[in-house]
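INFO  loader      accepted 1 record
INFO  loader      residues=469
INFO  predictor   begin
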Amino acid sequence: MMKRKFLKICVLIPSIFLFGCETNQSESIKRVAPDKDLFPSTYTIKPHKPFIITNTTILDGTGKSFKNTDLIIENGKIKAIGPDLPNSETHQIVDGSNLWVTPGLIDVHSHMGVYPAPGTSNHSDGNEMTSPVTAEVWAEHSVWPGDPQFEKALAGGVTTLLILPGSGNLIGGRGVTLKNIPSITVQGMKFPNAPYSLKMACGENPKRVYGNRNMLPSTRMGNMAGYRKAWIKAKEYKHAWDEYLADDSQIPLSDKPNRDLRLETLAGVLEGEIKVHNHCYRADEMVQMIDMSKEFGYKISAFHHTIEGYKIAPILAEEGICGVMWADWWGFKQEAFDMVRENIALTDYSGACAIIHSDDAIQVQRLNQEIAKAMSAGNRMGLNISRAHALRWVTSNAALSLGLEDKVGSIEIGKNADIVLWSGDPFSTYTKANKVWIDGTLFYDINNPDLNETADFNLGIISPGGKRP
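INFO  predictor   done
INFO  writer      dumping tokens
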């Protein structure tokens, strides 16, 4: 560690840079990088009574299914799975006969909270379109926890959401993973210790936004140039901090690199701490983005929308990149025309990580039906996809793309008890979520409206006296 001599000076410095007081004698200087735990989660698991769901059909999210099976939940975790499990008098019994159980559904592409309802201009907080690169902005600073759309998604069995900035910029900023629970603050919804994400967008959106302003980018080649300029600066920034923080560094304290919020986020990607979620439709552009990631040494976690994912599914499998897709949306702009309904099934068949998403406040309420559509399209072409396998597209695969595969996405012993009890086969259009638990706490019960919390915004609006219908 470098040693230097200083006059005796004590300065009150914000906690993100703690260098303390220096004296005339040689002392070790503690070099501290910017704090990575800003705006920390305040979510805590609520105490709940242990319970057992008995004699039910389970799709576990890993591709397995079990009939006439029991499931024990204790202390927010999955305790046991199996037929005829013993239970104590302390266990509340939930009769699962003729019902189905799945893990909580995960939507890895949502704009709820940043584009909340009602959809007015003063609520439009998802795109900071003041520069093609706005890696410095964080979606969580726009999320309105009172968005009534969250509770609608919960009623559809969605327990975890990745909230992303919009796609108007080349690099739109950080996304945040939330637990779908009622909260006054966004920190109360933040999934503890979930990796941050970075939203990038290729194709028509950024070139249209800035081309209309006679700025770069106005073409796809302008898009690529814009990304590369940003990553070059990020590499330089990371190198400067790495040198400064090295124990054997001889750089004077006065030459500490200036903190840059934009480059700080990009450096987090280069360090592998922030996962890239990349809006991209066309196969050729996805491959170019892969090449660029190799040029600068970062990993792409997932391509979103991925209309042409079926064309490069073997490449996605080889690179370990998830394809995040719709069941059947297409044709709403030029780059979305070359779609096939078998897209998800073919991507999955090639061994790639296939995921279904909503990108829509209505569709998020029916992700179980979206999976059914995608599965049916694959089966019509002879792929013989089971319900248990297809469920992975909105559970374990989704968790993998978020870096949360060890916590959620499947019903396995020791994992978080994010559980949905369905009224029947979840792949049926007639099925509804009867109960939804998050970390073992019941947050939604179709038969107990008084349990289902509603946003303050709804009070006095949804029915006379503010009571739920």
